[in-house]
Amino acid sequence: MLVPDYFLIDFIFFIVVLLTNLLMIGVMICRIKNWEKAQEIIGIFVILHGIPAGYVLISNIIAGRYWWTIVIPLIFIAFVILDLLLEYIEIVDYDFRENKKILIPFLILYYAAFISMLPYIFYTIDSFYSTLILSIYILQFIISILGMEEQRTIEVTEEYEY
């Protein structure tokens, strides 16, 4: 029987997590700068990371690994599918961010996907790699907050223009 290379499986997921977090920083910057086409292209690459995450998921299932090595990639894949449906296939006829019934579950899945990646990397590879991912995630989060503040400033300015 062929023994699966756990390190390879986990390192692939590390690369997925690393690149996805870096790409999300790009998405956040594009939102701040209002570069819609660049945001769309970067978002497609984020969605494509669901493919290697699917490989990790299937490999972990076949190898009979711990339940959390299956659930965490599954959460990320669920986020990618929901993002694909809302951003690119556009299953709703309006900006889903304006509807809290869609936005709140989307954000919960987004944060669950990105935060759950940290313990996966920590327990399967090394604390150094999870610290690297955490640092990039914090940078992504800060840029996201700055983007929200920038958007609020634009909305308030437009609201009070004479």
Explain the overall architecture:
The protein is mainly α and 162 residues long. The chain has helices at 6-33, 36-48, 50-63, 68-88, 100-124, 127-159. It has one domain (6-147). The radius of gyration is 17 Å and the shape is globular. The relative contact order is 0.14.
Can I get a quick summary?
The protein has 162 residues and is mainly α. Helices cover 83% and strands 0% of the residues.
Q: Mean pLDDT score, rounded?
A: 88
Helix fraction by DSSP (H/I, runs of at least 4): over 70%
SS-based structural class? mainly alpha
Taking the sheet with the most strands, its summary is:
none
* Radius of gyration over C-alpha positions, nearest whole angstrom: 17 Å
Residue stretches low in confidence (pLDDT < 50, at least 5 long) are none
The share of residues in extended strands comes to under 5%
Shape by Cα distribution: globular
Distance between the termini: 75 Å
Count of discrete domains: 1
Q: Output the number of helix runs.
A: 6
Order of helices and strands: HHHHHH
Oligomer: single chain
Describe the SSE topology.
Blueprint: H1 6-33, H2 36-48, H3 50-63, H4 68-88, H5 100-124, H6 127-159
What descriptive keywords fit this protein?
single chain, mainly alpha, 162 residues
